[in-house]
Amino acid sequence: MGPVPLTLLLCVSALSVLVSAALDDPTGEDDYTWPQRKVPLVQEKQTVHLGSSEFLAKPQTELHGICGIECQQGFPEPSLDDLEQLLSYETMYENGTRTLTTVTIQELNVSNDLMGGSGSHSRRRREVYGTDTRFTIADKQYSLKYPFSTSVKISTGCSGVLVSPKHVLTAAHCIHNGTDYLDGVQKLSVGVLKERSRRKGKGRKGKGRKGKGQRKHKEEEEEEEEINENIEIGEKQEPKGKGKGRRNRSRRSTTSEQPSFRWTRVKQMQVPKGWFKGISENVVADYDYAILELKRAQKTKYMDLGVIPSVKKLPAGRIHFSGFDDDRPGNLVYRFCSVSDESNDLLYQYCDAKPGSSGSGVYIRLKEPGKKKWKRKIIGVFSGHQWVDVNGMQQDYNVAVRITPPKYAQICLWVHGDSSQCRGT
Question: What segments bear the compositional bias annotation Basic residues (predicted)?
Answer without folding.
Answer: 196-216, 242-252
